[in-house]
Structures are given as structure tokens and as C-alpha cells.
Amino acid sequence: MAAAHLNLGSYVFAFISLSLSGMAPSIQAHVAVYDEYWSQRQTEALRQTKESYDPNPFNVTDHFNYHAAQAMDTSGADNETRRHLRQVRGKTKRRGGRYYSFNAIDKCWRGDKKWEKNRKKLAHCVLGFGRKTTGGKKGQFYVVTDASDNDLVNPKPGTLRHAVTRDRPLWIVFARGMIIKLQQELIITNDKTIDGRGANVHITGGAGLTLQFVKNVIIHNIHIKHIKRGAGGMIRDCEHHVGHRSMSDGDGIMIFGASNIWIDHVSMTHCSDGMIDAIMGSTAITISNCHLTDHNEVMLFGGKNEDVIDKKMQITVAFNHFGKRLVQRMPRVRYGLVHVVNNDYTHWEMYAIGGNMNPTIISQGNRFIAPPKENCKQVTKREYTTYKEWKSWNWQSEKDYFLNGAYFVNSGSPNAWSPAPKNPIHSKFAIPPQPGTKVRRLTKDAGTLGCRPGKSC
Description:
Layout: H1 8-12, H2 36-52, H3 57-72, H4 80-85, H5 104-107, E1 140-144, H6 160-164, E2 170-174, E3 178-182, E4 186-187, E5 192-195, E6 201-206, E7 209-212, E8 215-220, E9 223-228, E10 233-238, E11 241-245, E12 253-256, E13 259-264, E14 267-271, E15 276-279, E16 283-288, E17 291-293, E18 295-297, E19 299-301, E20 314-318, E21 321-322, E22 326-328, E23 332-334, E24 337-341, E25 344-345, E26 353-356, E27 360-364, E28 367-369, E29 380-382, H7 387-390, E30 395-398, E31 401-403, H8 439-443
Pathway: Glycan metabolism; pectin degradation; 2-dehydro-3-deoxy-D-gluconate from pectin: step 2/5
EC number: 4.2.2.2
Signal peptide: 1-29
């Protein structure tokens, strides 16, 4: 097993020795007037980025794979969770009884029939680089009762915009199913959870969700669709500040200089720009259990070649279903490190995973089903770079499952070029991923869940 495990110790994370102390965000996103308030938020966000960066990222990837293996173990030998799983080698049980999941994140909370009373248990379930995200766990519950978004400066109490701009931790839930048509981008502050369980919540319209210079946010179990560019204007960005915003891009979720972010069980379709973009020093992010369809440029991690702060970027993409009518960028990466693990890639038209500026991409246990076009079967795409340069980038595939002619081009020395590379990592850290052949079972409930009170979700 040690020889097969990725040779992470000697070269995957070589960039961590670089001096990043002088790096700072160089652009202001959609802030039209960059006043003292935004300058302070930027300074704090940069500090948080440096604090959230993990200098030993292979421990994080192995921690994820350890819990993924534990969730798949049906032996019942070690603990109560495994005793529950012992009964379900074939199908998961739900509705009338307890829910059993082979998905390590879902297993943590979905078997609880009293999930509605124990909502904050969710905050203990995140894995990957966003594993320290707790959202609004330390705050009160806020119930959204009003689907309107009519006042951007003084949002009405009971609306989602009022909730996300409060200057305190909040766990935001919804009184009923609703369609929230945003007039402009929804700017979210620190320590928030948007929890759509038990309600059918659709966010649509003019611009999407913006997480700019913030930390500790969970977005869970909502639909985000048909997001358009916003014209900008005066918009409240926290409880005690209103600022002028320029035109927004039309991203479903924009993560800008933010850290400790978890996006889980979100269904997304038809956004004007990206579905989920993470740029300008964003790090400590997990994107899991999402279902994505009908889009061109799906995920962009790292926005500009000049933004070397993105060498601090660390993102986990896990248990997602990349579905129908997607074209490219699942994700596309500049700098940084992305762990792409146990996702189901059933559709792409150009490529699945791409990037430039020497990112580290660890692809483990995914299923890749190539499109019919012969020239689009390669999973990977290195952009704006010659082979002489990219051959040393560390892009590795381990236990991926390739169908219909799909193939992944490895790179990185020496792992890509040696038939039996030496693994310098102690065996206790050499934890392989769940294989791509198990992905259908792991991602079958990707997207929003129809949770009902009194029943396992």
C-alpha cells in the first residue's frame, strides 16, 4: 500500500516553504468605494487566511480518507456506528426506520430522527480542508419568514438579507418553502449557517451569494439557480455598514478572501458566470454532496495569475455529482491545492479538471465517464503552459474509475515517471481513498434533501 500511496512528503507540498508574508489581495471585487471598513475586513481576512492554512495538508487528505473508509466498513467490529452499518450491506434504510449512509459526512447526522431539534449537530460533520467550520453554531436560531428582498439598505426583519447581515453568529432556518428572488448580491457576514432542511428553498434572480473577507460560513440544503449579473448600488454588507457595490459577475456562490467555508447538499443550475468561485486568498474550504447541472464554467479556484496569495488555497471537493450539460472547470485551479475525492463525473463537454500556475491536484476515487467526442475524453487540461513546464506539476490520480475512454494525465516528479516510487510517509498516514467503483453509492443523494420533521433525513 505504501508504494501505491501518493508521494506527498517530498514534492506535493513543496510550495509551503515559500515566503507569503508580503502577499495581499490586489483587487477589490465589487466594492465600489473601498473605505476604512473594507480595508479592515481585508486585513483581518488576510490574517485569517494565513492562520487557516494547514502546513501538513496530507494529514487532512488522509483524515478524510480514514473517515470515508470507516463509513464504508460494515464489519460492526469497533463502534455503534459500525453496528448500525452492519445491517445494510446492500440498500440503505430510511423513511420508516433509521437512515444508514456509506457517505462519511451524511452518516454523521442523517440517521437522527430528531434532526430538526438537533440541527447544530451538522456543524460536527464536515470533513476535508473546511473541517473546522462551525457556522452559526454558537449563535441563536433565526427563522426566515419573508421571501421578499425589496430593501437592500434596510432589509426587513424576517428576510434572508436581514439575517445574513447581522453582526453576530446565527443559525438561519426557514419557516416554510419559499422562492427568494434576490434583487442584488446577498452579502453574508461571519459565523453564519444557512440551513434549508425541512423547507424547499430556492434562491434565484439578480446575483448570488457573496462571501467576501469573511470566515466560518455553512451553506446547506438550498437550491441556487438562474443567477444573473447584478447592477450593484447601495447594499447593506453588515449590520452597521452600507456600501456602494459595482456590478456583480453572476456567480452562484462567490468566495473572495474567505476561510473556513462549507457548502453542502446544494443543488445548482444556470448561473451567468461561475457556479462556485473561490479567489483571492480563500482557503480551508469543503464543497460536498452538491448536484450541479446546466452550466459552462462550473468552479474557478484562483482568479488571476498575479494573485500569488492563492498559494495558500486548500480546498476539498467531495461526494459531488457533476451532472448533465456541464462543459468545463470541475474545477479549474490556479496555485494552491485541491483534493478532488469520491465525486461522480457523469458529464462534461470539454474537460473535467484543469488549471495553470502549478496547482497541486490530488484526484482520488472519482468516477469519470467521458463524453462521446474523441478529443474530449481527457479528464485533465493544463492551460497556457508548455509540456516542459507542466510535467513537474503534481497532478495525481489514485483509485479513480474511468469509463467510456476517459483518462487522466498524471504529472509530477518522481511519482508520475517512476514505476515504483519510494514513499517517505510513515505507513500510519498512508490511507488510500475509497475507490471510484463505489462512487454511485457515495453520491446517490447529492443535491438538496427532502428532510421531513420526525423522520430520518
